[in-house]
Design a protein that fits this description.
The protein is an alpha+beta fold and 179 residues long. It has one domain (4-167): Gcn5-related N-acetyltransferase (GNAT) (Aminopeptidase), CATH 3.40.630. It has helices spanning 13-26, 35-39, 43-50, 101-114, 131-139, and strands at 4-7, 56-63, 66-75, 84-92, 121-127, 143-154, 157-167. The chain is globular, with a radius of gyration of 16 Å. InterPro entries: Acyl_CoA_acyltransferase, Bact_Acetyltransf, GNAT_dom.
């Protein structure tokens, strides 16, 4: 069964909250936001975040009419970095993995970024523990341009974060700084 993908709206807040909380709990090492931090947010603040805007949309993957995965694409708003957009908050419920939700969400997110006027690159970060997610991003053309050590802390555990990018036009190679 191919998942249905659509942009989520304020009407999707209950389902979005449930999926987001579930993926934060099941993959706590994958996200900056903790399940407790998200659970403390009001439905109104989640609705404001979820409302589609010119610079930010959240896609949902639906299997059998149920929301099973999420992905947000947000364009930078400051003038010097408006050529960039970011992918974040990617998650698929454990029971829906292997059904193509991640691939369908990434395809929708990349397609959306490509239609944003002036956006030439799409960026994301993935923690070192998220091997399947990193492979997903690589299948969609993302390349690692750097790794930030000690990017996240989970208790006493230090995690590195791989920074990835997908050129959408313009420069095809990331600039690197050589000491």
């Amino acid at each position: 069964m191919v998942p249905d993908i659509r942009i989520l709206t304020e009407d999707d807040v209950p389902a979005y909250r449930a999926v987001r909380l579930a993926v934060l709990q099941s993959d706590s090492l994958a996200f900056v936001t903790t399940a407790a931090e998200f659970a403390a947010r009001t439905p109104q603040s989640v609705a404001e975040q979820l409302a589609p805007r010119e610079d930010s949309v959240t896609f949902g993957a639906f299997v059998g009419g149920e929301l099973t995965g999420i992905l947000t694409v947000a364009r930078e708003t400051r003038s010097r970095i408006r050529h960039r957009a970011n992918v974040f908050g990617v998650g698929v419920l454990e029971g829906a993995r292997g059904l193509g939700c991640g691939d369908a969400l990434m395809a929708a997110g990349v397609a959306h970024a490509r239609q944003l006027e002036g956006v030439t690159s799409l960026h994301l970060g993935v923690t070192e523990t998220q091997h399947a997610a990193r492979r997903l991003y690589e299948r969609h053309g993302f390349r690692t341009w750097g790794t930030q050590p000690d990017a996240l802390r989970h208790g006493e555990r230090s995690l590195a974060e791989h920074w990835m990018w997908l050129p959408l036009g313009g420069n095809e190679e990331p600039h690197t700084v050589v000491p």
